[in-house]
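hi! just following up on the protien thing from before. the input was this:
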Amino acid sequence: MNVAEAIRGRLVVSCQAQDPRSPFLDTAHMMAMATAAVLGGAAGLRGQGVAHVRAMVTLGVPVVGLVKRHVPGSPVYITPSRADVVALTGAGAQIVAADATDRPRAGGERLADLIAATHAGGALFMADVDSVDSALAAVDAGADLVGTTLAGYTGTTVPDGPDVDLVAAISRWCPVPVVAEGRYRTPAQVAAAFDGGAWAVVVGTAISDPVHTTRRFASACPHVPVESR
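and the predicted 3d structure came back as:
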């Protein structure tokens, strides 16, 4: 658990390019963002894509690796297959994150298959969940950490703020570290997650997505192009 201990009580910054036109899709540009996050005090990074993960591990902090990929016939988008897990551990990810909700994977792969592949690759498995039930099921399957990454994203309406109550509920019932993630935008929200029992907190868009941040400020201007609203 040395990797998990390294992020205990600390901030993890998710460095991902959300906009398909973002210059941060380029690995060198993303590395500039990741380096800035580490300089600012991030104890770990969460990176999307094998190339970005391989580069981020050179910064000397734990990297949570994932792959976002649409698979026909399945709603699972975050690290959908065992092959993705193998690629991420091969790239050096110390923690692999994957969708651990009860939604089906294409090809009939089970969550336990992904967890076994993660451990075989020498990494810890972080279960991205949306509820206490999915968190408990993931722990039963062998997950090393549980993240609230998908809280609010598997229903019909996405809430505006983070689900701190879910962090507290999972922390009460799960024997593994609980990582708070999802719509954390302010230091006060981060502090609330730790008060609720979070082991670590992941902040992404609020720190590492200048496209989104610029749109927020641009939306307050009197003349706003439609595409910026």
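Residues 71 and 106 are 7 Å apart (CA to CA).
The first strand starts at residue 11 and ends at 15.
cheers
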